[in-house]
Structures are given as C-alpha cells and as structure tokens.
Design brief:
Structural class: alpha+beta
CATH topology of the largest domain: Serine Threonine Protein Phosphatase 5, Tetratricopeptide repeat
Number of strands: 4
CATH superfamily of the largest domain: Tetratricopeptide repeat domain
Strand order of the largest sheet: 2-3-1-4
CATH architecture of the largest domain: Alpha Horseshoe
Largest sheet: 4 strands, antiparallel
Low-confidence stretches: 10-23
Shape: elongated
Mean pLDDT: 92
Number of helices: 12
Number of domains: 2
Helix content: 55-70%
C-alpha cells in the first residue's frame, strides 16, 4: 500500500470511528477494503476492481461504500475506462467524509484534464482544494494541477499564485520542485533534450536547425549542477506548441512541452 493510500485509509477510518459509523461493516468487509488498498498500491488494478466490486455487492449500502467506489474508480481509470471511472468517482465525491471527497474530486479533475476539458478540470481541482486542509496531501496535487490548467488557459499570473502555495506548504516535496520549475512561465516551448555537456546540446540544436526547427540552448541549475537544455520555439498558445511537438518528435522522441519564462 502506498503512503497516500495508507493516509486515506487511516483518515477515513478515523473519521468513521469518530462518527460511530463503521459498525455496519464487519471484520471481513474491512479486510476486503484493506486488500483493495493493497492491490491498488501494487498497481494490480484487476484485483482492486474485483475486491471493491465484491465489497459493494456484499455490503452496499454501507458507510464505507465511498472508499470502494473511490478505489474502483482509480483502478478503472488506470485501465483506460474513463466512463465507468467517472461514475464511481462521482459516487465517492458525494461522501460525507472530506478526505474521500477531496481525493475523488482530484481524480475527477485528472480525468477531465486527460480529456482536454480544462474548464471541468479547473472546477474539480478547485472543489478538491476547498475540501482539503492546506497542508494535507490532496492540496499539493490539486494545487499543482490547477496551476497547470491555469497556464493552459493563459492565466499565467494566477498560476504562479497556485504554484507558490504548493511551494510554501510542501517545501520538500516533488510537487514543490515541479511548481518551482513552472513558476513565472509566460509562454510554451518544446523541450527537445537536456545534456550534462554543452557539446551534446549544441549538436542536437544544430540537427534541429537543419530540419527547420528554431532551437536554442540554455543552461539551467538542476540538482545542484548545471545542465544544458535544448528548446524549440516560444509559443503563446498551447496548441501551437502541440503542433511543433509533433515535428520535433520526428528527431527527438522524448521531446515534451514545457514553459518558457
């Protein structure tokens, strides 16, 4: 079970116990949910779906249905079934427990973002943040992704506010590092590669230039050292960067869209 899953299991169980609301789930039902958490943490989505479905067949309606719907929704999402995943996560988002609601809304935001539905993604991320304590795990993920959505919409200054909060409340997290890397972005570019040696970066830039792609090499600090990054273009709109990405990937398969400052 991952640390995030353990946190969710602990928090929702504690909440349920405080409310006196887990009495209708017996020891076997709790074991099924624990097995579902474990399966999800291992990445065994088929077992997670099976365990959650068995729990719902045997114990629904119960006060811990929200967890089963949440876990099954995550597994269905990872298996490439966004329709059924959304249905389960929407049920989980109706939970009476804030922890479950916050995570379900975060997952719904991720599904919307993957589908390119920026407005819906923004709504779900904002709702997730409203359900999360500022220093709890859902907030760092929802805040980072909301910042990304705002950048996609061209709201760069508003995105910086979101990134700064992630960096403030979770200073030692990977999310804070990613937020710092995206801070102060004002346009899009295609990252074609990063090199420890400038010579390798210059050669790649020259190869891209021969193909008619405007490449530039910049030095950046990462992990306490200097790397040389090859970037192509500066685009105001994300779709322009997407068009350029396809061309760059013909020469550099690992290219991706990043922010330009």
């Amino acid at each position: 079970m991952t640390s995030a899953m353990r946190l969710l299991a602990t928090s929702v169980l504690a909440c349920g116990c405080l409310a006196g609301c887990v009495a209708d789930v017996d020891a076997r039902g709790k074991q099924q949910l624990t097995a579902c958490y474990d399966a999800h943490g291992r990445g065994d989505d088929a077992e997670a779906i099976q365990r959650a479905s068995e729990f719902l067949r045997e114990y629904a309606p119960s006060v811990r249905d929200d967890e089963a719907y949440y876990l099954r929704g995550l597994a269905l999402s990872r298996q490439g079934d966004p329709v059924d995943a959304r249905a389960d996560l929407a049920r989980a988002a109706e939970s009476k427990r804030r922890g479950v609601r916050a995570r379900a809304l975060l997952a719904l935001g991720d599904l919307a973002l993957a589908a390119g539905r920026l407005e819906r993604a923004e709504t779900f991320y904002r709702r997730s943040l409203s359900e999360s304590a500022a220093r709890r795990t859902p907030a760092q993920h929802a805040g980072l992704r909301l910042g990304y959505v705002l950048q996609r919409k061209g709201q760069w200054a508003d995105a910086d506010v979101r990134f700064s909060r992630v960096m403030h409340y979770f200073p030692n997290s990977k999310q804070a590092q990613w937020a710092g890397a995206r801070m102060h972005g004002r346009a899009w570019t295609v990252r074609a590669g990063a090199f420890a040696r400038r010579g390798g970066a210059m050669k790649t830039a020259a190869d891209l230039a021969k193909a008619g792609l405007p490449a530039a090499v910049t030095a950046e600090m990462r992990g306490g050292g200097v790397i040389h990054v090859v970037s192509v273009g500066r685009y105001v709109q994300y779709r322009q960067a997407e068009a350029a990405l396809g061309k760059v990937r013909r020469l550099r398969k690992g290219a991706y869209i990043g922010v330009a400052k």
